[in-house]
Amino acid sequence: MSGHGDGGTSSDSESGAPVDFDRLDVIAERLTGDARFSRVDRQSGFAPDRVVAVYEDGFYPEPVHEGRLEVVWFENGDFSLHYHEDHDEGTFDHRWDRHPSDHNARDHVHPGPDAPTPGNDVAHPVDWRDVLSMVLAEIEDRQRAFWPD
Questions:
Q1: Which of 10, 40, 68, 132 places its Cα 20 to 30 Å from the Cα of 30?
Q2: Which residues, other chains included, contact 82 with Cβ-Cβ below 8 Å and sequence gap of 6+?
Q3: What is the pTM of this model?
Q4: 14, 40, 16: which is closest to 29 by C-alpha?
């Protein structure tokens, strides 16, 4: 732990483990150096146990007001990465999760557009860097689909 509070947050109930603030610091540093993001917030007011990375507006057509990725990581390796878009006519949500669940296997995805529960059981990579790369690539595929060839 890196001294970001006592480790007890509302997200503990998702995983049963404390939030890994050291890992979140590394993730925030990595995303901060990525030109895709206009802003990366650590422990923002609305999500103190997460890193929130807001995408540059140029990745979206006008009806999309904002795209962001919220990341929470736990000391036992569990995680939740939530991609969210605000549109003129609603929202789009997609979530990649690893945590104990009574609705899915430990590794699962709640697919867009509305991230339903239960989601789909999947096998996520073991290494956190591979998980983050996979998620960023899937988001990039979605962003590219906005723009016809």
A1: 10
A2: 69, 70, 71, 93, 94, 95, 115
A3: 0.88
A4: 40
